[in-house]
Amino acid sequence: MGADGPRIGSLCSGYGGLDIAVQQVFGGSVAWHVENDANAAAILAHHWPEVPSLGDLTAVDFALVERPDVLTTGFPCQDVSEAGLGAGIAAGTRSGLWLHVARAIQSLRPSLVVIENVRGLLSAPAHSDMEPCPWCVGDGSGKPALRALGAVLADLARLGFDAEWACVRASEIGAPHRRERVFVIAWPAAENPDFEPGVERGLAAPGQAPRGWSWADARRRGRAPSADALGVRSRRREGAGSLAGAARADASQAPERDWGATPTAAGDDAPLDWGIYRGAVERWERLTRPAPRAVDDRGRLDPPFVEWMHGLDAGHVTGVPGLGRNAQLRALGNGVVVRQAEAALRLLLDRAGLLLAA
Predict the structure, then answer these.
(1) Residue 204 has pLDDT above 80, yes or no
(2) Can you give the pLDDT at residue 255?
(3) DSSP conformational letter for 171
(4) From 3.40.50.150, 1.20.1250.20, 3.60.20.40, 3.30.420.270, which CATH number describes the 7-223+340-351 domain?
(5) Which of 142-156, 186-200, 340-354 bottoms out in mean pLDDT, i.e. has the lowest?
(6) Domain ranges of the chain
(7) Which helix (H) or strand (E) holds 285?
(8) What number is the average pLDDT over the span 137-148?
(9) Is 346 helix (H, G, I), strand (E, B) or coil?
(10) What angle separates helix 278-287 from helix 246-253, to the nearest 10 degrees?
(11) How far is residue 227's CA from residue 247's CA, in Å, rounded to a whole number?
(12) Of the candidates 315, 292, 345, which has an alpha carbon nearest to the alpha carbon of residue 15?
């Protein structure tokens, strides 16, 4: 437990977006990163030079690292993405790294786990013996009996964690693109006689203050609206809730700022013409900052524009020395929209009854 809030352990860190979202909700500080990609690691080292990088997830001995209060992970999505290979979670695949994430959870026993992945997690197969009955879960003969999200939730339950999950689109919080993602939170289950003996628990149950910090900090700390402000109520009170109206509420509450002149196209004094996308662009501008041009001088997608679409500060990725255009786009494509993750985290905490009245 740090002096300024929970300590955060970050697996498959990317450019650090999920960690930033957790800090927006709880405060705290990052204890360590685990990131094997050299370009992503360069971004992390640029912004968090004091935070140790533990390198390859498959080689980390978690018995030797600081135990975090919150563990975040956006494990590789390529094999569960509709844009990827569709291989799901299986040994030898990139998304098979989930098995190492589960190993980390088992060893570290954090008070909260925060997971982000693509929507394909709902439909990609998982090669697991957690559900041996092929007609109970899955598509039938000859196909894996468990979906990727089911494997994640089953592993969490087996490790003694309760969980909540939801699909949240970036557009629901005002972003000018859909970018639908699955978010999962998990916390140690309360003592329950129905659990098999031998599962180590002993951490705080929901509603208690785990290791010196309070779930109520989530209401007091965040810069984005609370779950209530987003029109979300606890499932235990009014149903599952949604993020409907979040972007409108955010935009209506955003202070008026003088951004100066509207950005212009390269070599042209005329303002950028966003055409049918003007409303979406201007809404996100009100929530973030002015949009840069979308394409470079060669007519290619410009990384600073993607960075803006993700709601990042200018230069968070594109200002890191030594990263070329392709490396920047790859890091951004694999990254997390911070406002989206923050809204999802507040929604899930509220659903789970883990946000207490401040």
Answers:
(1) no
(2) 42
(3) G
(4) 3.40.50.150
(5) 186-200
(6) 7-223+340-351, 253-338
(7) helix 278-287
(8) 50
(9) helix
(10) 60
(11) 13
(12) 315
